[in-house]
Amino acid sequence: MTNLSSFRLALDRDTRVDQGRLWASLMAMAEVGPGIAGGNNRQALTDEDGAARTLFARWCQEAGMEIHVDQMGNIFAMRPGTDPDTAPVCVGSHLDTQPAGGRFDGILGVLAGLEVVRTLNDRGIRTKHPIVVANWTNEEGSRFAPVMMASGVFAGVHSVEWAYDRQDRTGIRFGDELERIGWKGKMPVGSLKLKAFYELHIEQGPILEAEGTQIGIVTGGQGLTWLQVNLQGRSAHAGSTPMARRRNAGLGASRVMELVQQVAMSHQPYAVGTVGRLELRPNSTNSVPGSAELAIDIRSPDATVLAAMEASIRHGVEAIAGELELTFTISRLQHAEPVAFDEPSVSTIRNVAASLGYTHRDIVSGAGHDAYWLSRVTPTAMIMCPCIDGISHNEAEDISPEWAAAGANVLLHAVGETALVDACTGHP
Length: 428
Ligand code: HGY
Ligand code: MN
Ligand code: MN
Fold this sequence. Notes:
This protein is of the alpha+beta class. Helices cover 33% and strands 22% of the residues.
């Protein structure tokens, strides 16, 4: 049993990450899978995702870490601790992006984790617990639903087999695609037991920037439900079909979109509702749409509000279909309850932010994150940094190098406190 007195609870307070190196890594990663407007299109399990993984793994190996990959392609870059029998402290997020995604959503959390290790290496600092930097597969859920898929398997929310059978909209299976890009590991998912998990993420909303606050102390996150609605009418000639004889699925879709807006607005200020995906068939200018598929995203920090929104939407879709003589199906694509993070871990983040002199405030996450599921299996907390105009899931997503470094410094010191710094190492 190691003598605990040889470990300090904290790094020297003047220890900071290398802001320029972190920013250079973010910009280099942004070159992989570029979008069309300055952001990224690096969707899960595409070749671009594979290239990002390869780059990340190389950087981690150059920093002296061992690479472990589980059956869901989750990457765990491990920095050994002085006591190999202890559970690692994990930091990380995701490298996959939305189709019109930004350069920082998820990527900041992964590369700030790498920067933490690079900084400890620079200072020759050892920790008692190993440190793991994680890249969680398919956080975005845009190509393969649901969101936070592989961290969900890690936390026991989904089975590996169920996840492997998820298909994208062209019918490609998740498991086959993971195999194709060469990132289907052998490590059983969830076998890595963690001491704690910290995720740094951009806010993806306007609060921190508007207040001029540097750090968000994330106390929890709102719940989310995705619903898929399929409306079935009859395609018909746009010219020769009288209005009274139409069974117009496109009209039905427009009313469902308005319904989602009204339901969200009726639960303000803590509810949001979006129809982000709409597909009409046959999708031809001179054919009345015979069928429509809509994907609905509703969220609230209050579980009862979320349930009430879902019930109102289900009821409203039935009424709309009746009025327009459509048949319909409505099904849940996914659901995550609102989450509260581990209070001692949240306090660590808050105390570190204060001791480093950063302005900070508690905040509830509007977006979903891998930390949601990790909080089921290990003490978990999140750190947020502002983003410009609160824009995200948009190629214009942007942050400042200073915000990135401030978040990474809080991550660095939170890791130092949790992984226990070996007092005999590091510069005086
Ligand atoms: O949908 C979300 O909240 C996350 O960006 N995947
Ligand atoms: Mn994200
Ligand atoms: Mn996202």
